[in-house]
């Protein structure tokens, strides 16, 4: 399969994962060729403008076509493409405003609303993700501004024999003295990246301090609760202060409850099975009665009431052995099963409740402290009253700010030693998955290769297929099959993380981010760039680490041309796919028409907005930036294509976060911090490539500069982590102890890190003047004749310790919920049940039936009540044709509505 065969169908705008998954097979000489064999390394063909246009034009054409379709279908399918503008699960104050439903009104809204709207009305992590994409675009664009004016002239006149666009790359330079330009540019560009990463980390520290120390967030129960994953075992359940310090207020003990958890799951499943049977009965009975009362040939409708035979014939029945045996009434059988399941839950609950009250078999403990400062001190083990916990109890076995909805209860009951063992096994399993991923993708490519299959007996007829069909099979089937296989990688990793004992969904997602990042860098980038399989180059790197620069220098430049087209395909195909959202649209329609028949199913589909998995989306674009950085000094043209591609992704995700997505997970900025540090891999690999290239050319001066830069990057990495990681993990004690409403009145000399720098020059929070309009800046501006409109952004960029301080961030958050909302108030029951395993407190689900015009649902409700099973028919109905629907205007009035608590 040739590059042209793959590039053109991919350019038609298919799933963006296809490009990622098939990337190694797009390079001549790749081990992941479509026939699954390994070829010798060959130099890729020259990059030419016609070749790039051949990929760009069909990609652009298909993108425009698909966006035109999107504009047409967006209004009829508001539930898919703009639910955040109207759906009741989004509070009215947080809905994205639209002045009309005109076809292009969304463009005006997209342009008018800035990213801060997402912070104010969605979530902190959603805002940070958009900021990450903007930071990625800025890095690539800054690289264009630095590298193109210097390196393009140097490379183009380098004396080499390269042709067309290859003349703009380092390979066209034959004079070693010209390599000083590449070394100096590397210092400038990579130095800027190091500054940007440190600046963003400082900025995020200030934002997190302002966000989570604001009154509304600091008063939450989760802010003053610490989760101990390996607590003291022999401590009285009533004496929480002895175990966890004098400032401890109450505790929730977690014990092993698997039998109870299983019993609760069985109970709920049986209730839902009963509900399905009841709804099926009401649907079929309504249709039978309507048909029996249909007008006769004379046009007169029958007025006879429904007979018992008609009603009874609609009751679902099932044979004892599915196809044999006596038929039994499914509803009556389900009712008996529900009663038995409810009784078993009650018995097991009493048994485990007694154990929990005695503090036996405790595996984890949630401890509520008097306030947020006390919880922070306990989390850091620096309370004035030393907490008598095991000496090896480190921050890895404690967590703070955990929401009840994030807890994976079955994993909390896992002993810490077991959890650590399982995590080690999970790391080994994922490492093997990454290492040998080339095998399944090669197998898929082999199976999808028509020319290869035609060589087998009985399959010769494949060669006789029409050329358009052959082109479709050879061009479409391999990337689609490989894409389908690759799309399951994050899901597999998430399942492994949860099976390995991650205590919360957030910690599991952070683990997925780390693993998927490694997968992206190794399989999507290095396997492609090195024209080899992971099983070939990883052992070589381990056994001969001193040859890494030469290995990279010998292989990476030859694949640079591929990434010019790679960014085009990714930017156009995947960004349009993000907006079109074909899979959700088709799934919603098919499930609505053919699968979901009960009010509960229809309600869940309607009210469950699409989420976003941070562990899946961050690594993909982190890898984008890494690729751009590696080629920044080797083939600077890549930076321009990366800038365009990432910009398209930014706008597609901004649309989704404004109109479609409701993030269901908060990592508290940890995903963003991790992604920033992962970008450094691009700096390291890029520097190693330059060291190797300069070494191969025997350019001593540039080599020395590159080595010094590499060592300086290591020192930078170590120092920034040493000083910033503690601030990213927890808040300074003197800062968290301050009153959030009076921090501006504190003596500047007493302000903690990231607060002192800006306080002395800040005005009161209620001052309406520009907070950046300081006399110092005005003086500098007058002396340098720089307009304030230019100087202020420059100062904000180069002085993050001032402009990202907690005080400044409080101004930034002035109109957000964190600053504006009142502190949450909890009832005694809400506090009592907050961190209690749902298996101890959840009641059997209400059987939700649709109301019918013949009164059958009322009879079923009364009959179920006699069996002590609660049932309601409010807010849902079934028509004479058996179609079920529910009231969408007031979801809070429905029996299945659950009011959220701001823990």
TrEMBL record:
Residues 423-694 form the CSC1/OSCA1-like 7TM region domain. It comes from the Eukaryota. Residues 51-200 form the CSC1/OSCA1-like N-terminal transmembrane domain. One of its GO terms (cellular component) is plasma membrane. The keyword Transmembrane helix applies. It is a multi-pass membrane protein. Keywords: Membrane, Transmembrane, Transmembrane helix, Transport. Residues 223-411 form the CSC1/OSCA1-like cytosolic domain. The chain crosses the membrane at residues 51-73, 132-151, 179-198, 424-448, 468-489, 624-651, 675-696, 703-719. InterPro entries: Csc1-like, CSC1/OSCA1-like_7TM, CSC1/OSCA1-like_cyt, CSC1/OSCA1-like_N, PHM7_ext. The keyword Nucleus does not apply. Pfam families: PHM7_cyt, PHM7_ext, RSN1_7TM, RSN1_TM. Residues 797-889 form the 10TM putative phosphate transporter extracellular tail domain. GO terms for molecular function: calcium-activated cation channel activity. Residues 292-315, 738-782 are annotated as: Disordered. It is found in: Membrane. Belongs to the CSC1 (TC 1.A.17) family. This is DUF221-domain-containing protein.
């Amino acid at each position: 399969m040739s590059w042209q065969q793959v590039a053109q169908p991919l350019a038609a705008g298919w799933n963006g994962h296809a490009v990622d998954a098939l990337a190694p097979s797009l390079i001549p000489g790749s081990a992941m060729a479509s026939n699954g064999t390994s070829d010798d390394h060959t130099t890729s063909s020259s990059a030419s403008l016609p070749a790039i246009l051949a990929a760009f034009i069909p990609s652009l054409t298909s993108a425009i076509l698909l966006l035109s379709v999107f504009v047409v279908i967006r209004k009829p399918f508001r539930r898919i493409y703009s639910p955040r503008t109207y759906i009741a699960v989004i509070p009215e104050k947080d809905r994205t405003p639209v002045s009309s439903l005109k076809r292009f009104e969304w463009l005006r809204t997209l342009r008018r609303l800035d990213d801060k709207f997402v912070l104010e009305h969605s979530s902190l992590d959603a805002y940070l993700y958009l900021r990450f994409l903007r930071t990625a675009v800025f890095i690539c664009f800054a690289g264009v501004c630095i590298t193109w004016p210097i390196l393009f002239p140097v490379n183009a006149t380098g004396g080499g024999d390269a042709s067309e666009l290859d003349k703009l790359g380092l390979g066209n330079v034959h004079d070693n003295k010209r390599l000083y330009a590449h070394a100096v540019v590397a210092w400038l560009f990579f130095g800027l990246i190091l500054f940007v990463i440190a600046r963003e980390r400082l900025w995020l520290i200030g934002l997190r301090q302002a966000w989570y120390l604001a009154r509304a967030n600091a008063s939450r129960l989760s802010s003053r609760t610490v989760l101990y994953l390996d607590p003291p075992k022999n401590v009285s359940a009533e004496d929480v202060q002895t175990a966890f310090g004098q400032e401890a207020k109450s505790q929730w003990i977690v014990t092993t409850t698997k039998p109870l958890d299983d019993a609760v799951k069985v109970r709920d499943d049986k209730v839902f099975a009963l509900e399905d049977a009841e709804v099926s009965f009401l649907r079929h009975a309504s249709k039978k009665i309507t048909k029996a009362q249909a007008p006769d040939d004379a046009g007169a409708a029958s007025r006879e009431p429904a007979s018992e035979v008609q009603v009874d014939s609609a009751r679902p029945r099932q044979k004892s052995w599915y196809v044999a045996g006596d038929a039994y009434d499914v509803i009556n059988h389900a009712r008996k099963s529900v009663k038995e399941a409810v009784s078993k839950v009650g018995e097991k609950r009493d048994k485990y409740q007694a154990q929990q009250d005695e503090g036996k078999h405790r595996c984890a403990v949630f401890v509520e402290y008097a306030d947020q400062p006390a919880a922070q001190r306990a989390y850091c083990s620096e309370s004035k009253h030393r907490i008598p916990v095991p000496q090896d109890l480190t921050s890895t076995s404690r967590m703070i700010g955990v929401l009840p909805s994030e807890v994976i209860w079955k994993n909390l009951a896992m002993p810490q030693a077991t959890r650590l063992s399982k995590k080690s096994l999970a790391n080994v399993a994922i490492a093997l998955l990454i290492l040998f991923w080339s095998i399944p993708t090669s197998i898929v490519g082999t199976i999808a290769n028509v020319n290869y299959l035609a060589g087998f007996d009985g399959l010769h007829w494949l060669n006789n297929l029409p050329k358009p069909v052959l082109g479709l099979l050879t061009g479409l089937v391999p990337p689609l099959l490989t894409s389908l296989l690759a799309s399951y990688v994050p899901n597999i990793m998430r399942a492994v993380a949860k099976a390995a004992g991650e205590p919360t969904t957030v910690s599991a997602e952070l683990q997925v981010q780390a693993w998927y990042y490694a997968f992206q860098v190794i399989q999507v980038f290095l396997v492609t760039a090195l024209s080899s399989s992971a099983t070939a180059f990883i052992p070589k790197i381990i056994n001969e680490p001193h040859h890494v620069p030469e290995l990279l220098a010998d292989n990476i430049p030859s694949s640079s041309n591929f990434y010019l087209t790679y960014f085009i395909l990714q930017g156009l195909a995947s960004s349009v796919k993000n907006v079109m959202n074909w899979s959700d649209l088709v799934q919603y329609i098919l499930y609505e028409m053919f699968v979901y028949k009960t009010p509960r199913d229809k309600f869940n589909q309607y009210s469950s907005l699409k989420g976003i998995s941070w562990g899946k989306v961050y690594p993909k674009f982190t890898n984008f930036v890494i690729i751009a950085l590696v080629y920044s000094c080797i083939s600077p043209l890549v930076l321009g294509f990366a800038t365009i591609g990432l910009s398209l992704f930014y706008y597609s995700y901004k649309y989704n976060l404004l109109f479609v997505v409701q993030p269901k997970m908060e990592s508290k900025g940890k995903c963003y911090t991790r992604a920033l540090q992962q970008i450094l891999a691009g700096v390291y690999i890029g520097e190693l490539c330059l060291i190797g290239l300069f070494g191969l050319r025997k350019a001593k001066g540039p080599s020395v500069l590159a080595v010094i830069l590499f060592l300086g990057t290591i020192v930078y990495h170590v120092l920034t982590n040493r000083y910033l990681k503690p601030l990213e993990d927890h808040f300074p004690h003197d800062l968290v102890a301050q009153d959030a409403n009076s921090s501006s009145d504190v003596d500047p000399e007493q302000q903690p890190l990231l607060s002192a720098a800006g306080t002395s020059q800040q005005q009161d929070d209620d001052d309406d003047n520009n907070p950046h309009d300081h006399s110092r800046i005005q003086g500098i501006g007058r002396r340098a004749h720089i307009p304030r409109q230019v100087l202020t952004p420059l100062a904000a960029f180069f002085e993050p310790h001032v402009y990202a301080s907690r005080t400044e961030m409080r101004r930034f958050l002035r109109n957000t919920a964190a600053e504006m909302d009142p502190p949450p108030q909890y009832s005694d029951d809400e506090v009592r049940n907050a961190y209690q395993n749902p298996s101890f407190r959840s009641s059997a689900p209400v059987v939700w039936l649709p109301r019918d015009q013949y009164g059958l649902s009322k009879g079923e409700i009364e009959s179920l009540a006699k069996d002590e099973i609660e049932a309601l028919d409010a807010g849902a109905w079934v028509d004479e044709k058996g179609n079920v629907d529910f009231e969408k205007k007031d979801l809070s009035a429905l029996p299945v509505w659950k009011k959220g608590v701001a823990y």
